[in-house]
Amino acid sequence: MAEGTGPLAGLRVIELGHFVAAPFCTRLLGDLGADVIKVEPPGAGDPVRQWGARVKGQSAWWSVHARNKRCITLDLKKPRAREIVLRLVARCDVLVENFRPGQLDRLGLSEEALRAARPDLVIARISGYGQDGPQRDRAAFGVIGEAVGGLRHLTNHPPGTTELPPVRVGISIGDSVAGIYAAFGIMAALWKRDAAGRGDGRGRGLDVALTESIFSLLEGALPEYGALGTVRQPTGGGIATAAPTNAYRSRDGIWVLIAANSDPLFRKLATLMGQPELAEDPRFLGNQARVANSAALDEAIGAWAARLEAAELERLLEAADVPATRAYTIADCAADPQFRHRGMVRQVEDAALGPMLHPGIVPLLPDDPGAVRWAGPPVGAHTGEVLAGLLGLSAAEIAALHQEGIC
């Protein structure tokens, strides 16, 4: 396999993850150069291999979800497999898992066992509710984290406007945000362990909860409730604290977002609309007044937008330097010249699926940006490579493990 490039080249991570949160975390680390060894059960492997649209009978998502990872199979219910995991742990800097709390202990991979194998190991645990507390054992996926964390209540239309259920963001954002926090926590723990002149050489554990990851995003909702007793309500396409900021439908039916929520920007927008008097209207003088009268303001902007094609609307707003854009579809994203210029849309050769479009690497470190070295591999593609290369097992030993159903 291609050697890692990027700022994390030389870092080795073992992933005992499945579904989304832990694998998303390790994908970020792998993109920046880490050697990620993903452990899956023999047979079908990670359930995400079966998710989403299919290309040549395989998941297109998997091509991105498991890129830059070395995928091996081990049946963690078998004692011999657990021994192999511990031997691999001894060669790794980080372990990432997202089982329910206590599951690894029941498999014989307790923190004590892991630290016996590698005392300075950084262990990142991702779970629904966290590793302790009265709800730690409850089942959870990302959507549960979004609900408990307060996001699902807010991603809806204003109260009284619809009887439909609260709208989902559209991706597994609860899992992905938890994965980002886990990656951030891993780097903090590695800094504390290894920083030149100040690292203490100690291994550490992180405890990342899906619910808490989402809850931490809610801006001023909690202090507002604590100080004022106000419960922030959903506002549909608008923002509760600034106006005008909303989506307005163009004449050709495309939603265009306009964010003119400062006094100078609102004056520019009002002039562009041919209604400069709006900027002097007492209802719209200052942001607080505009927020209080946002319905009337949105009606006026919406009526103006509805007279123009989306392309013309975008052209006029850009020329006036008012922040605006159509709501991109994935087709718009794929064609966007800015994304293309910065490598955020790139073609990757997938050994199984052929040329595939992948999102680029975030964050961008221009001097050492990392790379997409390979796309998500088949189940167990690197089992032999890893067991031979890291643990020194012979071909006969690996064949015997396969025969016994251990890998």
UniProtKB/TrEMBL annotation:
Keyword field: Transferase
GO molecular function, one term: CoA-transferase activity
PANTHER family: SUCCINATE--HYDROXYMETHYLGLUTARATE COA-TRANSFERASE
Official protein name in the record: Formyl-CoA transferase
Source organism of this protein record: Falsiroseomonas stagni DSM 19981
